[in-house]
Design goal:
The complex is a heterodimer of chains A (206) and B (247). With 206 residues, chain A is mostly helical. Chain A has a single domain (2-204), classed as 3 helical TM bundles of succinate and fumarate reductases. Chain A is built from 8 helices and no strands. In chain B, strands 2-1-5-3-4 form a 5-stranded mixed beta sheet, covered by helices on one side. Chain B has 2 domains: 3-108, Ubiquitin-like (UB roll), CATH 3.10.20; 111-246, Alpha-helical ferredoxin (Fumarate Reductase Iron-sulfur Protein, Chain B, domain 2), CATH 1.10.1060. Chain B has 247 residues and is α+β, with helices and mostly antiparallel strands. In chain B, α5 runs antiparallel to α6 (193-200) and α6 (193-200) packs across α8 (225-246). Chain B is elongated and about 70 Å long. In chain B, a hairpin with a 2-residue loop joins β3 and β4. The chains are: A mainly alpha (206), B alpha+beta (247). At the A-B interface, α2, α5 and α7 of A face α7 and α8 of B. Bound molecules: protoporphyrin IX containing FE and iron/sulfur cluster. Iron/sulfur cluster is lined by residues 67, 152-158, 174-175, 178, 219-221, 223, 225 of chain B. Protoporphyrin IX containing FE (HEM) binds at residues 17, 20-21, 24-25, 28, 73-74, 77-78, 80-81, 102-103, 106-107, 109-110, 156, 159-160, 163-164, 166-167, 170 of chain A.
Chain lengths: 206, 247
């Protein structure tokens, strides 16, 4: 495995990076927006959920566009963390902090997504519990779960939007310092917008 | 007499344990760290009056173009020749760079940097059995870009501050990557462009960059290292696509 990874470093890193945007990041965005229907009330929300649950090939879509890419990205993400020796407290540059946060939020996102998928997708499927507004609302009554979701959503949104910045450099799209600075502002704006959408939806369940 | 207090991290050889010694050095206006080290060498006595061995360190050009005197001063990596005592917080702490093997005291072995240049083929092969004649002309714009890149002195500051460069990683570092850009920019060097790109697409190559961008912040020659890396990200991506679709 180690030897294979060394030999295919370029390919694996590029796939890791691409999957972070497509489909994982695209799905994250779609997911946060879909959940915002909760702000229109339980009926509208449940209607949207039912629509998704009635999609053809749903299981194949879930596996192909979510589980497999996310697991690939997450598992190799952990492999890449091995070479990380943090020095952000010694060299206090903004980009160095963002570099560190990118890694920390990746780990938080893993824990958060793992738990989230377990309780709302796997456990419900095993027990035959319906997935709807009530299920989520019942969970969010618990203040600890609610806070966990705030942290988890924030970390994941940061990881994704700072990851877009990183992706643009990684693929040689933003090359010079000026374009990278502008991309930084755009990604920050996108991050704030997604965070608002995510947390606003979360509040609707309280 | 006005004096300056130095705390120096010492290590007697590659494998022995480091320890700290304090020194008090006579102050001279405009002095740099090298002058203090020369003073200690003349009279190696610690602040508390104990006789000790003289401190080993490297230096050569004394004008920040050779890179030899690079060390960690007050926690930040830089050249000791251009580190002026007046501008430093006291006591002044001197440590060897942490990413290279210590030879003794502040002297490290930066062989990795030079091996990295070999790994990426940072040269232009012009030797042959007959005279190849003059090469193609270089545009003024490329000359300007290349001149900046050519100022690298292989000092190692960029890898010292790189969180992706350490004993758990194979990463080659920003300096060597930037040299690939320099030689690929050169009209004659371009002829081996793909060889150099292939060299940085392997193990420890450009993909191991994690975008902390510390390198560009500390490079004493102000080389646009992150621009070089992003530029090579573009070139390696296009080269990989070319290999896929023309292979
Ligand atoms: C919603 C889930 C996730 C999304 C949308 C996402 C997205 C991204 C994106 C777009 C990048 C930038 C890629 C690049 O630099 O080219 C990235 C990098 C990274 N991700 Fe994720 N990610 C997610 C989950 C995770 C998880 C669970 C981990 C596990 C630890 C992780 C670890 C990493 C690491 C370590 C990097 C940095 C790679 C590098 O710079 O070498 N990510 N992610
Ligand atoms: S790129 Fe800058 S910091 Fe790195 S070795 Fe060259 S001169 Fe030193």
């Amino acid at each position: 495995m180690r030897e294979w990874l060394k030999k295919n470093n370029f390919l694996v890193r590029k796939i890791h990076s691409l999957l972070g945007i497509f489909p994982v990041g695209v799905f994250l965005t779609e997911h946060l927006i879909t959940n915002s229907f909760a702000t229109f009330g339980p009926e509208v929300y449940n209607e949207k959920i039912e629509w998704i649950q009635s999609m053809p090939y749903l299981f194949a879509l879930e596996v192909g566009f979510i589980f497999v890419p996310l697991l690939f990205h997450a598992l190799f993400g952990f492999v890449f963390l091995w070479a990380w020796k943090d020095n952000s407290s010694r060299y206090r540059y903004a980009r160095n902090w963002l570099y560190t946060l990118q890694r920390v939020t990746g780990i938080i996102a893993f824990v958060f997504i793992g738990y989230h998928v377990w309780e709302f997708r796997i456990e419900t499927a095993l027990n035959g519990k319906p997935v709807d507004f009530e299920l989520v609302a019942n969970e969010m009554v618990n203040i600890r779960a609610f806070l966990f979701y705030i942290v988890g959503i924030s970390a994941t949104v940061f990881h994704f939007t700072n990851g877009i910045w990183s992706f643009l450099v990684h693929w040689g799209i933003t090359v010079g310092p000026k374009s990278q600075r502008i991309a930084g502002y755009v990604c920050a704006g996108l991050g704030v917008a997604l965070l608002y959408i995510g947390l606003d939806a979360l509040w609707a369940f309280r | 007499m006005k004096t300056v207090h130095f705390k120096i991290k010492r290590q007697l050889d590659k494998n022995s344990r480091p320890f700290w010694e304090d020194f008090e050095v006579p102050y001279r206006p405009g002095m740099n760290v090298i002058i203090a080290l020369l003073d200690i060498a003349k009279n190696p006595v610690t602040k508390s009056g104990k006789k000790t061995t003289s401190i080993a360190w490297d230096c050569n050009c004394l004008e920040e173009v050779c890179g030899a005197c690079t060390m960690v001063i007050n926690g930040k990596v830089r050249q000791s020749c251009s580190a002026l005592v007046d501008q430093l917080e006291k006591p002044i702490r001197l440590e060897p760079m942490s990413k290279f093997p210590v030879v003794r005291d502040l002297k490290v072995d930066r062989q990795f940097m030079f091996d990295a240049l070999k790994r990426v083929k940072a040269w232009i092969p012009i030797d042959g059995t007959y005279d190849l004649g003059p090469g193609p002309k270089m545009s003024d714009q490329d000359q300007q870009t290349g001149y900046k890149l050519s100022q690298c002195m292989t000092c190692g500051c960029c890898v010292e501050v790189c969180p992706q460069f350490n004993d758990r990683s194979e990463f080659i570092g920003a300096a060597a990557l930037s040299q690939v850009r320099l030689f690929n920019l050169h009209p004659t060097g371009k002829m081996q462009k793909e060889e150099r790109l292939a060299a940085i697409m392997g193990e420890g190559g450009i993909e191991d960059c994690g975008n902390s961008q510390n390198c560009v912040k500390v490079c004493p020659k102000e080389i646009p290292l992150t621009t070089s890396i992003a530029d090579l990200n573009r070139d390696t991506t296009l080269f990989a696509l070319k290999k896929i679709f023309q292979g």
